[in-house]
Amino acid sequence: MTKLLKRRLGKRNRKIEISGDTDRLKQFRLSEDISDNIMRLKNIMNDSFDIKSRFFRIGGTDLQAAVLYIESLVNEEMIMNHLLKPLILQSTSVIESGVAVNFQTIKDSMLSIGSIQEAETFDEIVLGIMSGDTFLSVQGYTKGLILSAREYEGKPFGIPTVEPSVKGPQEAFVEILKKNLGLIRKRIRDPNLAFELYKIGKRSKSDTVIVYIKGIADQDIVDEVRGRLSSIDLDIELTAFQIGRLLVERPNSIFPLVQTTERPDKLVSAISEGRVAILINGSPDAILVPVTFPILMQSVDDYFENWLVASVIRFSRYIGLFLSSLFPALYIAVTSFHPGMLPTSLVLSIAATRAGVPFPAVIEAVLMEVILELLQEASIRLPKAVGQTVSIVGGLVIGQAAVQAGIVSPIMVIVISITAVTSFVIPDYSLSLATRIIRVPFMVLAVTFGSFGIAMGMLILLTYLSSLKSFGIRYLSPLTPYRFRDWKDTIIRTPLWTLTKRPEFLSPEDTNRAGPGKRRNKQ
Amino acid sequence: MKTEQLSAPQIMTLTVSAIFGVDVLVVQRELVTIARQDAWISLALGGILIILMGIVCYYLACLYPNMDFPQIILHVCGKFFGRLLLLPALVYDLLYTGLSLRIFAQALKMFLLSITPMVPIILFMALAAAYAVYKGIYTIGGIVDIIFPICAVTALSIIVLPLRQTIFSNLKPILFENTGNVIKGILPGFHQFTGFGIITFLFCYTRRTKGILKWYLAGLGIPIFLYVALTMVTIMVFGPSDVQSLIYPTLTLAKSIEFPGTFLERVESFVAVLWIGIVFVSVVLFLFKSTRNITVFLGLDTKYQSFVIWTQIPLLLGIALFIKNALEVIEFFSRMKYMDVILGLFVIPFVTAVALLKKRKETNQ
Amino acid sequence: MKKRSLLLFFLVLALLTGCWDQKDIETRGYVLGLAIDHYPPTPHANEKSGPEQASAAEEEKKLERMQLHTGEPVYAMTIQLPLIAKAESQSDGWPGGGQTAGSRTWEITQLGNSFFSMNREMASRTSLSLYYEHLQVIIISEEVAKKGMLDILDFFLRDPEMRRRVKIFISQGEAKSILDVVPRTQEYSSVYLAMILTNSSRNSRTVYHTDLGELICNLHDGHDFILGKVVSTEDEIKTSGGAVFRKDKMVGWATEMEMEAIHFIRNRYEGGILTVSTPEGEEGLIALEITSAKSRITPVIKGDQVSFHIEIKVEGDYSEDINLHGHEKLDVAFLKSLKKQFEKEIRKICLDTIERMQEEYGADVFHFDRVLQTEEPAYWKRMGSQWDSIFPNVEVAMDVEVDIVLLGI
Lengths: 523, 365, 409
Hints:
The complex is a heterotrimer.
Chain A: H1 2-13, H2 34-44, E1 51-57, E2 64-70, H3 76-96, H4 103-110, E3 116-119, H5 122-131, E4 133-138, E5 144-148, H6 177-185, E6 193-200, E7 206-213, H7 219-230, H8 240-247, E8 259-261, H9 264-273, E9 276-280, E10 286-289, H10 293-296, H11 307-337, H12 344-353, H13 361-381, H14 387-405, H15 410-422, H16 429-467, E11 469-470, E12 473-474
Antiparallel strand pairs in A: 1-2, 2-4, 3-5, 4-5, 6-7, 7-9, 8-10, 9-10, 11-12
Chain B: H1 8-19, H2 23-35, H3 39-63, H4 69-77, H5 79-111, H6 118-135, H7 137-160, H8 179-184, H9 186-192, H10 199-202, H11 212-238, H12 240-243, H13 249-255, H14 267-297, H15 305-321, H16 326-336, H17 338-364
Helix pairs in contact in B: 1-7, 1-11, 1-14, 2-3, 2-11, 3-9, 3-11, 3-17, 4-5, 4-14, 4-17, 5-6, 5-14, 5-15, 5-16, 5-17, 6-14, 6-15, 7-11, 7-14, 13-14, 14-15
Chain C: H1 2-17, E1 28-30, E2 33-38, H2 51-64, E3 75-82, E4 105-112, H3 115-122, E5 129-131, E6 137-141, H4 142-147, H5 154-158, E7 167-171, H6 176-180, H7 189-198, H8 212-221, E8 225-232, E9 237-246, E10 249-254, H9 256-265, E11 272-277, E12 285-302, E13 305-322, H10 332-361, H11 368-375, H12 377-383, H13 387-390, E14 395-404
Parallel strand pairs in C: 1-5, 2-6, 6-7, 7-8, 13-14
Antiparallel strand pairs in C: 2-3, 3-4, 8-9, 9-10, 11-12, 12-13
């Protein structure tokens, strides 16, 4: 016994190496002496000043106990009222009734906190404390209790900033996982809604939750998600985006292979189609997998309007996508290589506007493209105070004045402006970034080979997109292979009463989502 | 994850894309030279023959559903004799790919890029096609699914838009003392649809649903219909004598479409750009066939397949640049397509017959 | 990694090799109109030659000449280029928007005997590279047309920049003078001329289809045909009537009325006016606006003889009457007799035209030979080679039917 004590005390004096892996702490166990426990624990956690401990006696007895918690993470009020108060003050009634005071009764009868867990090894305890739980050690027992009294500071829900919608619910996820899960649960009351918890990251051990609806989602996809999440080997992960990167088959793909969203309504409609969502504590975005290109071009607004209107708007998004990546290249190709394609009067007026410009069309295009990118980057970073300046500088000075000075032609300004604006019709931000990136290779191709270059570029891009897979589903489904049933909700959107089946390409287990299409009787 | 397979509608789109290629640019001239204003009849008759042969191909593919064409030949006819039969197919696919690239580059130079030398154009197209083949048949299926509607719309627009300028009487007199020529034109008509045998390469990758034959026949029927309509319109707009003087009748037809006042006054450049996609998929599919042929012929394992793909490129470049004169190339191209006639009318039925016998023997044992 | 470096290699290669076809839009010279004249030109009446202008003209002529491989220059090719205003410092801020004083076009003439070499030679005189894809019209002078079209057309057929829808006109007199006209509503006379034609659906006296494609088809098929005629004064251009071609040589002019007849017979009538005098023989005139006209030609074979039966069906609206002394005649009987009057008029015009074409020119511009080829191929096979001698003697019977539909308010 003394030897054991000596060994442990000896170890206590030596600084325990902080390793990133709390699993190494498994070997350490609680001792019966609470001061020893508390001191060792504090040591492991680097004696940070915000780790608080409180020693007390239970009831009127001699039984000593101690609590340990991190001040910034716990709800101190709850600890006071539901842990300390019952044990110190209110337990007297229990003791007087003759119940023996031991670990079991403390656990069962005296604490009024909702979630209690027993713990013996340091890895659980340390993880718990670091997550915001409170640790209770009772003198004379080698077991301790981990009690959950976490404080969830933060807004109850956010306002969507990246994915605004005109009419829909204006709720977005927040940084706290528990609140996010609540936002989901309040929309789906199906008991088949499944949440599975994982802890990702060796140092961060962030709570990560997989969300899906059992019976709809294809089990293969769910298994795949589970497998990939478990195999993430990283120290600290911060956001959904990084996890997203790690989950995909091709991390280097320019085009996003997972979809991220800050909207709970989008998440809910995605999982009801048979997709799987992943939420991480600390990140106000959810990852939705698998994803295909047409899915990325959909927006929640599409479902609020009449089908014809929605189809036209959706179709115009594709045109916007096309313009955003190809317009400068097309301009270069058509004016420099094939002016024969344009009507005569247009050719002459463009030539007239370009008459005094010193640069060839290519250089102009590249110049304007660079300036555009810089402006966009600057506008993201600017503090609100100087917000106006950039738009004035950008718009007036660079656009107007440059044209007046004869450095760029007005046509180029028009082309670049249209390009810039259309890049924002794409609902998914990552996708719009991708289209911005491919502008430049297309311009290069246009300069060397004219419209042949652009056509070949589009074919190569098509090949690339066609070979991409997200969790085993082809990126371009359901455009290819043809699944006629799924086309009702791809580029156009047919009336809601026709959308009775879930998308086939996701292989859902339950394909019917609405009763057999019945038109509402016209009144 | 489930294994990926081609779907039945993809058989249709792949077949259409294999057939629709560079031939469309030059098909009318050859046939009109032989059968004058009844060229479209020859073409239609050739098309019927294609459908018959297509059914034979399908049947052959069904006999050995897990092997593709070169594998079937070697399995059925033995290692030596099979290779002997495979050789003309191999050579043909390779020649066709190379010459397609060349004719395409020529036409492109005529209508879009006049000063760019041919080598970069051919090289660019060849590399892009190799990239697509390298990615695999399922990727190719995806590409083709997207390009197919563009194919069809382009072809339809070239057929429909010049209708304003057509003179129906150019088609007359119909079959006046011309039947002999029309019959002479059937074989050239047949080989315009080269590429119809692609089903034998694709069947092993397809999901076995019922109705594959139906989609395949649709895939044959669409190019036949479009080619015949195109030829009719060409004759109607230009007249049979004029067509013979045009090296690229289809593109010249596009040039003659007039839409005064609207934005696209000159439709032909627009059409030429869409054309690039059509030629691309046809080159990709033939390159795929050629790669499979070579891989099986040399007895290589499939992991060497990518090596085979890239080494074909210099070979293709050589084939493309071999003949210098533009007209000679087209003439050679037409003559070379007769090889496809031999392949389609003799080799394939022969192999099918032998395969049938072998199957009977196998089931009897 | 190997794949990556290969990709990079090709990328760099692509950038290094350069862009062969790339040419900025303002550095091309868009040839809008082309005029072909004979050289040396026949002297024309309104030549302004004072001593200063004569020497200037001499100078110009010097630049027009080029060294030829064989022979003397036979043709004078004039192209019309739009002048895109040079950049000047602008106070309102848009380069190229200000008007330069003077003309907005430039006509360059080049002498030579091969069009392609003339084209290239002009490149040595302009800073713009000539681009023909926007060519609107080609004007050929009477002289050149009379010598034969096949001789000069090859350049236009072979070059891919030329389009089949380029309009061709034959000018009475010098072709160049058409291009020199500065029209009032357009900047460029070539565009103006091409636009006149689009307006011509209201007027049956101009040729509707006078483009390169039409020309080529007819040349290859060996038919006779008509091309539009254009005349000009100092500041106006007019196109009406046509030039009659036999095989590929011009043989004469067709008057405006003859153009109408030809359109009727060839089923190409798109719209126009017909006037007749009133049935009672008063000095009044009545005009019919024809809204549709269809014709059908049927050959009638008797042994070796062929005659044609032409049926023409016309529908029109009563659009104007003049000098009827205010007689408002709205009764059906009057209309019936009017109808007969119109029919008679059309018959007369058509038969007269056919006769003239047969006797004076011997040119089958009505394409009776085509009708024979398509409807009676057996006869054509037998007698087709003698068509040139058969045509002038062919008999024509006509049936005309006119329907008056609308009468105005």
